[in-house]
Amino acid sequence: MRLSSRHSRVSPVPLRIGAALAGAVLALTGCTGAAGPAAPDRPVAAVGPTGPAPTPDPVQWKECGPGRDCATVEVPLEYTDPDGKQIPLAVTRHRATDPDRRIGSLFINPGGPGVSATETVASIDAAHDKGPYSPEVVARFDVVGMDPRGVGESGAVRCLTDEQRAEQAAEDRDPTVPGGKPFGKLLTDARTFAKGCLDHQSPEFLASLSTDNVARDLDQVRAALGEEKITFYGASYGTVVGPMYATLFPDRVRQMVIDAPVDTGLWQNDPLRLLDDVARSNEETLDAWFKTCRAEGVKVCAFGDGDPEAAFDALITKLEAKPLRVPPVEGLTPGGTLDGAMALEAVRAAAGNRTLWPTLTAGLLAAQRGDGTALHFVVSFVTVAPFGAPFASLQEPHNAVRCVDWPELGKLSEHHAAAKKITGRGERLGSRAAYSALNCASWPVENKDRFTSELTGAGAPPILVVGGRLDNVSPHHWAENMTKRLADAVLLTREGVGHTSYRMSGPCVDAAVDAVLIDGVLPADGTVCDDVPPGTTRPPAPQG
Fold first, then answer.
1. Cα separation of 476 and 473, whole Å?
2. Of the options 3.40.50.1000, 3.40.50.1820, 2.60.120.260, 2.40.10.340, the CATH number for the domain spanning 62-156+206-269+452-529
3. Residue 529 and residue 493 in contact, taking contact as beta carbons nearer than 8 Å
4. Among residues 146, 122, 144, which one has the least CA distance to residue 215?
5. Is beta strand 51-52 parallel, antiparallel or unpaired with respect to 86-94?
6. Which DSSP helix (H) or strand (E) runs through 190?
7. How many angstroms separate the CA atoms of 315 and 108, rounded?
8. Which letter does DSSP use for residue 30 in this model?
9. Are 507 and 541 within 8 A, CB to CB?
10. What sections of 297-435 are H helices per DSSP?
11. Which residues, including other chains, have CB under 8 Å from residue 4's CB and lie 6 or more apart?
């Protein structure tokens, strides 16, 4: 298992990249070791499928930045054999900035699966007042990020060589074929991916990457920190981790907020339907961009001269017939080809994040002029996965986690049926999700003790569920379903477009989340918050 140096990287928070991308598009297009608090007693350790796991040793922190500490915690590879092989997990904490008012540890999971929690914690100070957590939360809590097993610095899953990655990135993609490639090529890619995973990791490690093990790992870290209970904030896939923890360890939850929730019933039992829901959500957010472009008028959104849908379809057809060559731009993009399918990837990512709507407008206008650099940049640095992984380089851990969490998907007929259903709707963006679970059809290991019990969190304190009205990854009805499934939960709805709401959509959501995390005070069930500021398609202003 590969572990790399983890004390020097500070990455931007996933999905909070609108301003950075907009600035890059302007440039590209011309339009521009401290000890923690002492624990009076050693808390009980995690309980595995066969009983209690060994109580971990106290965390040995080493300072790895201003106000920040890093450590490694050893946990069982398999909780069915808690005294067997142990694996190291990377943990980072950002110490409470007001230690006299410190409440405890806020555990976070930023999603994916595959997003590094340690890098999210490391980004807190770099982001300043635009950070992932409010200044008051950062003052009152040690914010703790554990990279889940197989993610980030906890032995990130590797399945492709650098050469294979480069080859896939350079491949031409045909949007007229469901999934972007002929099925035979997709299947070959899936088998190559599966073989590569076994070439780089042991089958035992791959089989252990399930979310129930991640929840048990969190509890091991909790015990190693000397905390009796944890406060938890999870976004996207983190909303599977949180309810799993609350279901396994309800008496160890102080407060919990889940933002942009996954429908855990679909996640555990019907992933192809889950991906169909994602495809529909992608289309809804693109439709919202079209509607806003028309409503704002050609003086704001010049793309399409009042008919952006027709202009969009014509542009994709033109790019597929004659792709644009994109020259490299030092420090920003390696260059390549922008064809119709690549442009659709960029559009899918940008349409789902209203902070990228101006970037999307600028990129489409530039592509009409024959300059594909901006759209190529977007697709190079924002997700190409249909579910939740913010960066293309996270595809390997993303697939590894979901393939062991999900039920067996080896029947190709199921994938064909799902693809036919998606592409039959004639959507602009749906084809990308058509065969997006195919890697799991060839997955080389079996999760023999897959956790299938309903995630209800029964016995935990009331949980705040935050759902966006238009979320390209987590449709709003998933939040409604999550609220019903949890034994005690309150739903807060955020209007507007975007994936996740906290620190992304104005003071109404932020105040509600902070009140839960800090004081345990929940809003009234059914509360609705406006999206502030609302999305605009106005491209960035020219520079100079």
1. 10
2. 3.40.50.1820
3. yes
4. 146
5. unpaired
6. helix 183-200
7. 41
8. S
9. no
10. 308-321, 340-351, 357-368, 373-381, 395-405, 412-424
11. 153
CA 526 from centroid of its chain's CA atoms: 25
| Domain ranges, ordered by start, for the chain | 62-156+206-269+452-529, 159-200+271-406+409-445
Q: Encode pLDDT of 523-542 as tens digits.
A: 999 999 998 888 899 998 76
User: Which residue carries 């297009």 as its tokens?
Assistant: 29
CA–CA separation, 56 and 120 (whole Å): 24
> Taking a C-beta distance cutoff of 8 angstroms, is the pair 265, 247 a contact?
no
> What confidence tens digit (pLDDT) does each residue in 216-246 have?
999 999 999 999 999 999 999 999 999 999 9
Contact (Cβ atoms closer than 8 angstroms) between residue 359 and residue 21: yes
The per-residue pLDDT for range 366-376, each reduced to its tens digit, is: 999 999 999 99
SS3 of 20-84: the string is HHHHHHHHHHCCCCCCCCCCCCCCCCCEECCEECCCCCCCCCEEEECCEEEEEEEEECCCCCCCC
What one-character DSSP code corresponds to residue 154? T
Chain-centre distance of CA 327, in angstroms?
A: 30
Q: Which residue, 399, 381, 386, is CA-closest to 150?
A: 399
Amino acid code (one letter) for 293: C
